């Protein structure tokens, strides 16, 4: 017999390894010996009150063998001689598109401008230490895309739970911890992601797919509104009739290429702001109502904040507890910050993007001349401003949080996890009013919501500009570009995803669409 239960476990009880069996036997009024296993289905922490509670949803197996089950089977077949589907970009969207092609009996040919995860590391070191950005291999470009050197948070607002579970199980199939199947806020961590990504590549190769690194798509040859050929690295040509375009939101050259070819694009609303960094112990103290170190069973605390300011949302984005701020620029001459964390989230800092919604139809009147690329140009300008204010390297402009809100230059800055370093700059006057004034009001409101959050011990670091794509590549109900037969815009770059899981789900959907009638 199997019984499902909701269990509430206190912090003290959580210390006991047999607590779930103990509680289940008590609630069900049966002997502990009759319980053959307790499977955790869901786990979350409720820290709203000083008495912290672990909420478990469990399946209790009574005199029944605990099965090793997954809801999905991943059956890959040899596709080496099958019809090809070309996939541009090997981020979460491209990876999952390739896996789905194999499941459906088609051969994915992946073209990725960046390097494999191992070689990519050297280029990340060069950004951090030498302040040199390789424009094909960086925190956004390379095997696994922007998702590899990230926090690996797997939270998504998607309501298609079945699809989300499938994505998670496939990550577990490729080496991620099965803890992600039960945690309310699952994450993998940047130290574990490269192995998962590498395993996905190995599956693709094993079953006859192809993955070409250091292969940038530089042109599309289109005849009679139908894709015919893709150009690689400005010299080679490859015939292709079904192309999944999963190049992410940072591939500006791809947006320019499409725009110059008069392939329809649309401006899309997005968000920009700064990253705020607190000592982790401050966030722990607020969220766990403690004064010293957090209890060892508690993970580094996170937060999620939102405030409406002058008709625009100001909100936290990609919060990384126990993490690092990283330089996420994709070209020299710009400074862009983002965040990542290791699986243990045991670094001393908590960072989060704090961004303001930008309504492209109302907020950028001076950029109308750029048409569909107006948001992109605005984004670029802000990143150039950050480059100049930081001192023309990957050093980022920064300010103490309280100095930013109160409008004065910081005489000194707090310690930071951002490796290239920080330069004190008057971000309160450098950021456009549209963003700066709303951020200031937003931070004040956040200080009311989380007592202790508004502190001189926090820095803000500029700029957090790549939250989502400022451009949408349109597609019809068959997920194909309305003008170009055979071109399937996919993932975050097309404007169809906002994170690892939604990009992966869109990759699967585009693979299913691309193979139709082939
Ligand atoms: P991308 O991941 O951007 O992949 C696009 C790929 O296309 C890249 O590998 C790029 O090199 C390649 N490419 C681009 N142009 C070309 C070309 N012309 N030819 C060939 N290849 C090309 N999301 C979360 O859900 N959780 C997180 O914790 C999280 N943390 C993040 C931390 C950081 C530092 C960053 C930068 C992002 C983070 N994100 C996170 C966002 C997440 O990574 C993206 O939403 C996701 O990767 C988008 O997937 P994608 O496949 O659509 O595009």
TrEMBL record:
Protein known as: FAD-dependent oxidoreductase
Domain of life of the organism encoding this protein: Bacteria
UniProt-listed InterPro entries: FAD-binding_protein, FAD-depend_C, FAD/NAD-bd_sf, FAD/NAD-binding_dom
Organism of derivation: Mariniflexile soesokkakense
Pfam families according to UniProt: FAD-depend_C, Pyr_redox_2
Domain spans labelled FAD-dependent protein C-terminal: 269-467
Domain FAD/NAD(P)-binding: residue ranges: 85-253
């Amino acid at each position: 017999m199997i019984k499902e239960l909701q269990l509430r476990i206190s912090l003290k009880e959580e210390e006991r390894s047999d607590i779930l069996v103990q509680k289940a036997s008590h609630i069900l009024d049966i002997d502990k010996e009759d319980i053959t296993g307790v499977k955790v289905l869901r786990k979350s922490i409720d820290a709203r009150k000083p008495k912290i509670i672990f909420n478990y949803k469990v399946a209790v197996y009574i005199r029944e063998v605990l099965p090793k089950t997954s809801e999905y089977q991943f059956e890959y077949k040899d596709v080496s001689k099958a019809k090809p589907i070309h996939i541009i970009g090997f981020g979460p969207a491209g990876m999952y598109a390739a896996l789905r092609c194999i499941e459906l009996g088609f051969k994915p040919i992946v073209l990725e401008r960046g390097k494999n995860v191992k070689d990519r590391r050297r280029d990340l070191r060069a950004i951090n230490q030498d302040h040199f950005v390789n424009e094909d291999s960086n925190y956004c470009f390379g095997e696994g895309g922007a998702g590899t050197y990230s926090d690996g948070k797997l939270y998504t607002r998607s309501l298609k739970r079945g699809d989300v579970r499938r994505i998670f199980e496939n990550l577990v199939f490729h080496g991620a911890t099965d803890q992600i199947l039960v945690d309310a806020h699952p994450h993998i961590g940047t130290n574990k992601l490269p192995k998962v990504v590498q395993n996905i590549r190995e599956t693709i190769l094993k079953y006859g797919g192809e993955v070409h690194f250091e292969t940038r798509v530089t042109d599309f040859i289109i005849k009679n509104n139908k894709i015919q050929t893709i150009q690689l690295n400005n010299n080679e040509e490859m015939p292709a009739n079904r192309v999944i375009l999963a190049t992410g939101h940072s591939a500006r050259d791809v947006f320019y290429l499409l725009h110059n070819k008069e392939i329809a694009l649309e401006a899309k609303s997005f968000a920009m702001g700064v990253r705020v960094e607190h000592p982790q112990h401050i966030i722990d103290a607020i969220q766990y109502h403690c004064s010293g170190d957090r209890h060892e069973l508690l993970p580094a605390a996170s937060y999620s904040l939102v405030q409406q300011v002058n008709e625009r949302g100001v909100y936290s984005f990609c919060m990384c507890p126990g993490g690092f701020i990283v330089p996420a620029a994709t070209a020299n001459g710009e400074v862009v910050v983002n965040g990542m964390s290791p699986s243990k989230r045991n670094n001393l800092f908590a960072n989060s993007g704090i961004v303001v919604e930008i309504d492209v139809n109302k907020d950028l009147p001076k950029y109308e001349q750029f048409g569909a690329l107006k948001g992109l140009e605005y984004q670029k300008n802000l990143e150039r401003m950050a480059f100049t204010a930081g001192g023309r390297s990957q050093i980022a402009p920064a300010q103490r949080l309280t100095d930013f809100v109160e409008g004065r230059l910081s005489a000194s800055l707090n310690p930071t996890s951002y490796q290239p370093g920080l330069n004190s700059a008057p971000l309160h006057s450098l950021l456009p009013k549209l963003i700066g004034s709303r951020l200031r009001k937003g931070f004040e409101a956040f200080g009311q919501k989380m007592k202790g959050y508004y502190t001189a011990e926090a820095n803000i670091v500029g700029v957090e500009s790549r939250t989502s794509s400022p451009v949408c590549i349109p597609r019809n109900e068959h997920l194909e570009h309305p003008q170009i037969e055979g071109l399937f815009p996919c993932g975050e770059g097309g404007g169809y995803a906002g994170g690892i899981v939604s990009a992966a789900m869109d990759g699967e959907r585009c693979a299913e669409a691309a193979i139709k009638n082939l």
